[in-house]
Design a protein that fits this description.
single chain, mainly alpha, 2 helices
Length: 86
Amino acid sequence: MDTPKILMSRENPNGWKLESILEKIQGEVQDKTDYIKESDHPLRNAIIGNNSRICELLAEARSLQVSTYKQLNMLSPDKGPLSPRL
């Protein structure tokens, strides 16, 4: 079974930009973290720590993707997913 593509590409021009989806996921993880901050469950701090690390890694991945776009912009302007630059 072929899983549908979610990232923008020539094959999926209406997909998500990687940096956008990373930012959206990071926001949702943060929302979940904020929600459990009110809990008094013994696992609360461990889960908050894990979620914080996940948010840090997502932010790092987003930063890498933004760096990639800057490098590609040095080659040529972005003309959309149907016009490759490499």
